[in-house]
Design brief:
Number of domains: 2
CATH architecture of the largest domain: Alpha-Beta Complex
Number of strands: 8
CATH topology of the largest domain: Spore Coat Polysaccharide Biosynthesis Protein SpsA, Chain A
Structural class: alpha/beta
Shape: globular
CATH class of the largest domain: Alpha Beta
Length: 325
């Protein structure tokens, strides 16, 4: 195993709208000598992702290996496949909709490993207004609350891991319990339990999200359900850890809590008012930017409906202890 080099592992699924920008950002790096190989794992995409991958393999300045799945198996399982294949001590897990900004990102990701207790260095995803403006109406609704924010944390958007202590003391992703969400939270909890640390690298990356022009309301509901089910599953498996930090618990589960508080004596009126405020604030930027769009009329009702989606799927994930979407 090569100790001083990095393997970049990128699971890909229907990402034809973002792959070229991702590849361009990798090619712009000034410390490419640190990367032994890039593994592109196509999770049975149905768009032109494989064509774009093939073109990149033929012209990249990196050594690139393309792996095509014949069945969709989910992000966690694809990460595990890449980790199993990689021949370096360090590897970066990267989403297929990320732009790396800093020209020396690879070396900066390695710096925290000077501490022997560090098992992961993670990036800070940012969500620029200019990217949000390029979305269609429904994508703007889904991501409006993230615009302008910086959300550091282990998310596999662009995170570096040390392979040996991960395999020996923590283990791989739980691809049986978590399909396409929640696997990062599960791994983060197991890292805490192992006594190792995940720390920030101070590398910032732009999270593009898929720029599908046909993105619709049904996909919003599916995304919200997927995340809620994953959070319910995590609560089932790590109840003490989740409840220990009251502030984080409230931020993570605020939507189910809003609805449940309607059943608490003396809180009904306050909860009702908070739900009304939420129905507007949740997509505030959309109201300000898309006020001429006739669909804006339905947004408060849609936002309130999504509260019920979140409650139902959080409960479903908690009861079954498994993410199924």
């Amino acid at each position: 195993m090569t100790n001083q080099l990095i393997t970049i592992i990128i699971p890909v699924y229907n990402s034809e709208t973002t792959l070229n920008e991702l590849f361009d950002s990798l090619e712009a790096q000034e410390d490419k000598e640190l990367v032994r190989e890039i593994l592109l794992i196509n999770d049975n995409s149905t768009d032109n992702s494989q064509k774009i991958i093939d073109e990149y393999v033929s012209k990249s300045s990196f050594q690139v290996q393309s792996i095509l799945r014949t069945k969709n198996v989910g992000t966690g399982n694809n990460n595990n496949k890449g980790i199993d294949i990689c021949q370096t001590e360090y590897f970066i897990l990267m989403n297929d909709d990320i732009i790396v900004q800093d020209a020396k990102s690879f070396s900066k990701m390695l710096q925290p490993f000077a501490d022997p207790k560090v098992i992961c260095s993670y990036s800070t995803p940012i969500y620029p207004y200019t990217v949000w403006k390029s979305y269609n109406f429904w994508q703007k609704c889904l991501f409006s609350r993230q615009v302008g924010s910086e959300i550091p944390g282990m998310s596999n958007k662009f995170d570096c891991f040390k392979k040996t202590p991960l395999l020996e003391n923590v283990g791989l992703f739980d691809g049986k319990t978590y399909k396409n969400a929640g696997e990062n939270g599960d791994l983060s909890e197991r890292i805490k339990e192992s006594g190792y640390k995940a720390v920030p690298s101070h590398v910032k990356v732009i999270h593009l999200h898929n720029k599908d022009e046909n993105f619709n309301l049904t996909q919003i509901i599916q995304k919200e359900a997927q995340m809620a089910e994953a959070q319910g599953t995590l609560l089932r498996h790590y109840p003490l850890s989740k409840i220990k930090d009251i502030r984080e618990f409230a931020l993570t589960y605020f939507r189910p809590l809003l609805l449940l508080s309607l059943g608490v004596p003396y809180l009904q009126i306050v909860s009702f008012l908070l739900i009304l405020v939420y129905s507007f604030l949740y997509t505030k930027l959309v109201y300000l930017e898309e006020f001429r769009n006739w669909r804006i009329i339905f947004l408060p009702f849609i936002n309130i409906s999504l509260l019920f989606v979140a409650l139902f799927y959080t409960a479903k994930g908690f009861v079954y202890g498994k993410q199924q979407i």
